[in-house]
From TrEMBL:
Gene3D superfamilies (UniProt xref): Spore Coat Polysaccharide Biosynthesis Protein SpsA, Chain A
Protein name in UniProt: Glycosyltransferase
Coiled coil: none
Record lineage: Bacteria, Pseudomonadati, Pseudomonadota, Gammaproteobacteria, Oceanospirillales
Annotated PANTHER family: EXPRESSED PROTEIN, PROTEIN CDI
Organism (species): Marinomonas primoryensis
């Protein structure tokens, strides 16, 4: 790595997770001496696919495909989701060799026997493209063209997002270790934890078994002045973070293990009393998409409606 090379990290996010991006940035920078630029990709204006089955699942799902353009089709870049936290030097990820590939993504899955038992886990865990190393000089992606090809049914949303079907198999390297996209799992080997189960992310739920790790990052930020308590309270007032988070930050570290269950139940009760609804805007968009799919199928697949 060149001494003056800047590691560019593009983060997919929406307004509700901007503070989570700050936590991610803090965790990256305190574990490296490299120059790092963290770029939140927010409020990007992308065309909407005609078929609502192909709509973005989040407000930033298509953002990763815009990175080469944002980087001027030069150098390389890292993509991450906002709901992550880093524990090792990001140069380990940055310096992975492409070996002729254009994109590097997750190598394998581990620890599913543990993470599938946690609250809000999915029916099945799959490898994700939520951490990517991109060779921007050799990726000529254009989001408008990608959406057009979705409309032309050249591929499905699932094939695009999970399989990266816009690249050939030879252009994809499966060499990012699980430890750099550790799905809901944390131990001494974890380089990056991904709080991928939305319903139990530490800032919206008391039920994440690794929540204390994220809380400590917040405490470190408050201690070094990179975050103010008023900033945290502002996100809570907006409804983006749960009201009980303040109690976790202030008292969670000193609560005895045998009282932790009671402490979390009180926090949950407080959130309920305050009328807190986690990821309210995300779930509103999900319902909107589900209703749009029904209407689309009613208009375009009447036979399927009758059979159903």
């Amino acid at each position: 790595m060149l001494h003056d090379e800047v590691i560019r990290v593009y983060v997919g996010t929406d307004r509700s997770q901007l503070l989570a991006v700050s936590v991610l940035e803090h965790s990256i920078k305190r574990h490296t001496t490299a120059q790092v630029e963290v770029i939140p990709m927010i409020d990007m204006d992308y065309p909407i696919p005609k078929n609502p089955k192909n709509w973005q699942r989040t407000g930033f799902s298509f953002s990763r495909f815009n990175i080469p353009k944002l980087a001027g089709y030069k150098g390389k870049a890292i993509y991450m989701d906002a709901d992550m936290q880093v524990f090792k030097d990001i140069r380990e990820l940055w310096e992975l060799p492409f070996n002729g590939n254009k994109v590097l993504i997750q190598q394998d899955l581990k620890h599913t026997d543990i993470t599938m038992k946690k609250d809000n886990s999915p029916v099945k865990r799959i490898k994700q493209c939520s951490v990517m190393l991109l060779d921007c000089e050799n990726l000529h992606w254009n989001v408008n063209s990608i959406v057009q090809e979705l409309d032309e049914e050249k591929y499905s949303y699932q094939q695009l997002m999970a399989d990266l079907c816009i690249l050939s198999e030879e252009e994809i390297g499966y060499t990012i270790p699980f430890e750099w996209n550790s799905l809901e799992y944390y131990d001494e080997n974890t380089c990056l934890i991904h709080y991928t189960d939305m319903g139990t992310q530490p800032w919206v739920s008391t039920r994440n078994p690794n929540g204390s790790v994220w809380f400590q990052e917040i405490r470190d930020m408050l201690a070094d002045g990179s975050l103010r308590l008023t900033d945290l309270k502002k996100e809570i007032d907006f409804g983006y973070f749960r009201p009980s988070l303040i109690r976790d930050i202030r008292y969670g570290k000193v609560v005895p293990k045998f009282l932790l269950g009671l402490f979390n139940r009180k926090n949950t009760a407080l959130d309920k009393l305050k009328g807190y609804a986690p990821h309210k805007s995300v779930y509103q968009e999900k319902r909107k998409r589900i209703n749009a799919v029904r209407e689309y199928e009613k208009l375009n697949c009447p036979d399927a409606q009758e059979m159903g």
